[in-house]
């Protein structure tokens, strides 16, 4: 285990607080992520030799307070589902701390300022918190450490959010992050902590000291944060360490399932009992230790005859997590295209209407829209479902910037994780890690393969619940009588497709081929001017009637039957569709309502 320790002498000018003596040898345990008791080396160290321990969590208004301008209920940075998940996790942590003779102290404000205030007020000698590689925490930690080093406060900040210390791996690789999973595995080897059992329980904690004049409260409710009475469908996943350990226990008790786990096999349309563990939100907030999870998996593997291996095994998934943490930590501007050495420079389109259609589940492709509803209501979707919608938004159909999709995920996912989310969006948009842009997920046949009856769609898009299975993935092809019977008129009750997949995906491939060629020619050093002129060229080719590929992108919600069917190459099916949609476009009174 890597421990980051820094200790320095107090500066002469810092006056002693009168409460210092009263606190004796006190320490602060600063919870940020790592919202757990098990395998929490920072908490363990905070309590060692301390008369008092102050377990603190700071509510950052930026992260928690309502932002009425945001596109979904929630704060500026997080959707309400995730905020609620966090509050539940804090309540659970407080309950566990109380059982150990302590409690969680909730304070509010800019976390750095609040913490420094607490350090001054309580006169503690030790500050303990889990090391965090996210840029937000890196900046915050610099600020706090400046104060502690001047004040002579010991800081203990162990790496326990990941299996490995990303900085170690980068150092072993000559200062650069490994860029492939296999090279990461080679450098990482076996985690050093694996040879000795992790501390999974604590019998008691030192009491909380006098809090002086610091404003401390109980864990707030959603209402306390100013959200009023919110009526929305909440995620079925409850936050907290207790729930995390329960879920983990359920997963590892099925040894056969663990031994045979193989991603990307698995059905993305299962939602009553999802095909994967749904432990990601718990790992995100550190309600579950990834190291403990990994150790439990090793215990199962030891007791079965045969099991899958990385990258496809469940342990392999945790290693993917560490891989992305390492690359993200070692790559400047990892979360954007510009200035990111790993990212192909691609002239993505900017189209607010199309983006809103995707975000609000109005693309007209039920598979895509159902996934986007699951994102909004549950804040969690299966990995391959995420693949489908990310591919559709970027290189598959809409050719919109991966950063726009990343932002939507970042807000709405309950497992939203800076390194993993950015890493996967880079991957899915063929901007980095994965470059086979000709392999596109069909928004029609991919989901159908797993769920021919469309049960997943019927659940998340009840407007389509009575659509016969023949049409559930392409409802615009349903004859008018069938649409009427299903009480779902396409263009009125459910949108027409925003683009025609076959031609849109061809367009995307053509654009990516050109962008890749230019990236290669200029060795990835594309200026804004290069990108703009490539964009102009691509648009020109698109509009020119001569190039083989006709412009197919239509204004959202205005794809007419003529436009649509012209894209279908002659055959019987095309003609059938033409007459059906002609009928829809013309006479039907309420269709365009
Ligand atoms: P399981 O299959 O049970 O895997 C166990 C754990 O392994 C997960 O909880 C997760 O921590 C880790 N893991 C699994 N797959 C990956 C992966 N591809 N990359 C890194 N770690 C992985 N995952 C997040 O946790 N947060 C995100 O913000 C996030 N954004 C994503 C965005 C896109 C576009 C895509 C395609 C994937 C994203 N993922 C993200 C990765 C993955 O989809 C989720 O981790 C996984 O679906 C969570 O479900 P689970 O816990 O049941 O996974």
UniProtKB/TrEMBL annotation:
<comment type="similarity">
    <text>Belongs to the DNA photolyase class-1 family.</text>
</comment>
<keyword id="KW-0274">FAD</keyword>
<feature type="domain" description="Photolyase/cryptochrome alpha/beta">
    <location>
        <begin position="25"/>
        <end position="163"/>
    </location>
</feature>
<dbReference type="Pfam" id="PF03441">
    <property type="entry name" value="FAD_binding_7"/>
</dbReference>
<dbReference type="InterPro" id="IPR014729">
    <property type="entry name" value="Rossmann-like_a/b/a_fold"/>
</dbReference>
<keyword id="KW-0285">Flavoprotein</keyword>
<dbReference type="InterPro" id="IPR036134">
    <property type="entry name" value="Crypto/Photolyase_FAD-like_sf"/>
</dbReference>
<dbReference type="InterPro" id="IPR006050">
    <property type="entry name" value="DNA_photolyase_N"/>
</dbReference>
<dbReference type="InterPro" id="IPR005101">
    <property type="entry name" value="Cryptochr/Photolyase_FAD-bd"/>
</dbReference>
<feature type="region of interest" description="Disordered">
    <location>
        <begin position="537"/>
        <end position="556"/>
    </location>
</feature>
<dbReference type="InterPro" id="IPR002081">
    <property type="entry name" value="Cryptochrome/DNA_photolyase_1"/>
</dbReference>
<dbReference type="Pfam" id="PF00875">
    <property type="entry name" value="DNA_photolyase"/>
</dbReference>
<protein>
    <recommendedName>
        <fullName>Photolyase/cryptochrome alpha/beta domain-containing protein</fullName>
    </recommendedName>
</protein>
<dbReference type="InterPro" id="IPR036155">
    <property type="entry name" value="Crypto/Photolyase_N_sf"/>
</dbReference>
